Amino acid sequence: MSSFAIVLVSGGLDSALAAAIAAERYELAFLHVNYGQRTESRELKAFKDIAKYYGVKKKLIVDISYLKDIGGSALTDERIEVGRNFILPEFSSNRLRQDSPNGGKFALPLNPPPKGDFIGKGSEVPMTYVPFRNANILAIAVSWAEVIGARKIYIGAVEEDSSGYPDCRKVFFDAYNKMIATGIKPETRIKIETPLINLSKKQIVQKSIKLKSPMHLTWSCYSESKLACGVCESCALRLRGFRLAGVKDPIRYVRGEKFMIRY
Questions:
Q1: What is the model's pTM?
Q2: Per-residue DSSP letters for 159-196?
């Protein structure tokens, strides 16, 4: 092992894989942020379980609940609906279908879908976007990196097959790396690494299996903390990834994969 790498571990599938990738080259330091999200306690449990799995001794848990005070996101404001999402795994693009009120049958694709529901890459930013969250989290990571001498910060951000958050794009991280270089001590070298940025959820599942990432310990659901809802945009993306990879998701869902249509 060489020097430390900080891994931003939310407790989700992507951050667990980012940790597995970083572990191949670096000693790990885990950073977790509570920001007043709906599933804060469940994500924290996942973080602790993943840290134990990797034997991580250097951990930092930070509270930035001011993001909840700021609001503007369905993840931090319970007055805003998270939205239900049904992504058909057979389509290469993210096409949405809603369940109809009569008997739970599926309707035809909606065009355009209702505001606030996930409609995939290239559409308007969904209401689950937390305004500039990643910039806040990365600032904490950079401060910690300067203190502990970490030269890398790993984040499991995904642009290729994601919700379309603006602060999960490669161009954002490229710009942030330039800012880091101009704002830290001259003798310090710190760089953000985004090893999942161009991967699909199918590829993330496959790579997680290959690197023995603890997928069974992860939590992705935006709205529930006991059993995953299976219908929020994060659950939908996750379920599609497992379906396309031909692998069963190890976590339990309230209603689960019956929402993923097979033809």
A1: 0.85
A2: STTS---GGGSHHHHHHHHHHHHHHS-TT---EEE-TT
